[in-house]
Amino acid sequence: MPLSLSLAPFSFKLSTNIPLVNSNLEKLYPSYCFEEQAFTDYFLQVHNSGLIRQLFRKQARFLCDLREPFKPLDYSQAFAMLEWGMNWTVASHEMSFLLVHSAVLAKDGKAILFPAPPGSGKSTITTHLAFNGWQLLSDEMALINLKTGRCHPFVRPICLKNNSIKLAKKWFPHASFSSIAIDTHKGDVIHVSPPISCCDMRFEDAEIVGIIYPQYTAGNILEIEALDNSNSFMQLSNNAFNFTALGKIGFDTIVKTVEKAKSFRVWHNNLIDLQDFIEEEIL
Amino acid sequence: MCYVLRDEVFVHPFSDNSGIALYNSRNFEVVCVSLNIHCFMKLLRGTTFNDSPLNHTSKVISELAAKEMIERSR
After folding, report:
1. Which of A66, A93, A120 is where one domain is finished?
2. CB within 8 Å of A283: residues ≥ 6 apart
3. How far is A275 from chain B (nearest CA, A)?
4. What backbone phi and psi angles, to 5 degrees, belong to A112?
5. Which candidate from A233, A244, A248 shows the least CB-CB separation from B32?
6. Domains held by chain A: number
7. Crossing angle for the helix pair A163-171 and A122-130, nearest 10 degrees?
8. Domain of A54?
9. How confident is the model at residue A275 (pLDDT cuts 50, 70, 90)?
């Protein structure tokens, strides 16, 4: 029996025969996510590999609407594969929003985008802010409304990698963590459930007032460089998933987003300093 | 505000005068010319164009940028 997974604004049906996937879903997602929905956007499957393959090294396979976009992964990485698969599914198919590869957090209805490549400390910032009173809209992608320019939440567990796993467990020991996926292409990976207050705000969109391009750096410093609109535009468009597919409306949406927000490039190490900067200078 | 250049190229001069973004609707290509050329912005906004050497350069840049994008799409 497929499982309903309602993650506003999208709904999924998930079929899986891997107990690790079920146990992590129950641990990380609130119960309302499993309520039956009238309409399903995407049909997903996470299954173990065939009988012969199971005998010497079990693997997990991900399918979206009966297509298999990735090669199978190690069985222990099945839950991480589902999370990445959901990201891929939305990023590859959605045309109702401008999708930007970015974390998004908000305070008092004002959202900050953190577009950045892997390894820039994006998820560590996300975890820190989400557990310090900010509203988590997304750890992975910004859903920007093409008409209003506001950012919609897509609240899911935060993906932590390598050194940030230890930090998050130390800072927030009472949070719900998934089982660890070892030796993935991103290193060791774990997912952490956001605070319930973030889940409760899953329908509350926010106005984008700032764009921060973060880069983690060694040493206890915080360097900030204000970016002009041209620079910010090019960086934001480079991080957009469906920019070219949307055509002119995608172009217009990025232009408007950049025009109304303050943009900065930030080299950071101290998250408290970074939070102070955002709250004092941008919000 | 977005402007149309040569039918298929949309141009957006940024309000902070840091440059212009150009979008070719034929091949979905986007170019951002990051220059601090105030007169070029004025030209695109349709204000009075004085035939100074600087303004002429700006005009040439805009024409070349649009032409390049149109050529690439063919």
Report:
1. A93
2. A107, A108, A110, A209, A210
3. 26
4. -115, 130
5. A233
6. 2
7. 10
8. 1-93
9. very high
